[in-house]
Design brief:
Structural class: alpha+beta
Number of helices: 5
Distance between the termini: 17 Å
CATH class: Mainly Beta
Radius of gyration: 20 Å
Number of domains: 1
Length: about 210
């Protein structure tokens, strides 16, 4: 294949010079929030079950800092149990409008009770009641079981605040690897991975073949 402009082989997407993956992720997320139509904080979460079979599903990023990436769930759900079993996970962000992708792999810790309480209080009241009513991932007994449970808890918490259920909290993924991918013409994509041995180790950076 002949390239009319050889600069396309060497042009940088701009992010390859960055040395802090969290700052770079913050910039990319900000751009996604401005351009993605739906849920720029959506990410696919990968776990494994007791037999080592992989599972993946979409969840929402609800916070991040220089420690890690936070999402919330029912700890008794399938994903909640799988995360707690391994305390390892991976997530993937794909922003189609920006033609970008970020992959994160690492260890997991539970957020503090204070962090979980603060986020839970920010949710709409109906969502908080739903967290009590839904036995997430378990068989539904019939079409009226969930509405009946919602009505029961709506009556129970008719007055005052809706407290956080003891089985509902959050996880923080502590990344050991963060990979950034940016589409370029002729499939000569930019692909840079940041890695470290543990949370206290400095980041290393390598550019990968696409």
């Amino acid at each position: 294949m002949a390239f009319k402009d050889m600069s396309i082989l060497t042009a940088s997407a701009g992010f390859t010079e960055r040395d802090d993956p969290f700052n770079l992720f913050a910039e990319w997320l900000k751009e996604a929030e401005a351009k993605e139509i739906n849920d720029p904080n959506a990410m696919s979460l990968a776990t494994v079950d007791e037999e080592g079979l992989p599972n993946v599903r979409m969840v929402l990023l609800k916070g991040f800092d220089d420690r890690g990436f936070i999402f919330y769930t029912n700890f008794e759900s399938q994903k909640g149990q799988e995360v707690q079993s391994a305390m390892k996970a991976a997530v993937n962000f794909h922003w189609k409008s920006l033609r970008r992708q970020v992959r994160v792999r690492g260890l997991v810790e539970k957020v503090t009770g204070a962090e979980a309480d603060e986020y839970f209080k920010s949710r709409p009241r109906d969502s908080r009641i739903g967290a009590w009513a839904s036995q997430q991932s378990r068989p539904l007994e019939g079409p009226f079981a969930l509405p009946a449970a919602v009505a029961t808890y709506a009556a129970k918490f008719a007055i005052g605040d809706v407290p956080r259920p003891p089985h509902w909290s959050g996880f923080r993924i502590l990344p050991l690897s963060i990979e950034f991918w940016h589409d370029r013409p002729f499939r000569l994509h930019d692909r840079v991975v940041f890695g470290r041995a543990n949370q206290s180790s400095p980041w290393t950076k390598a550019k990968l073949y696409p």
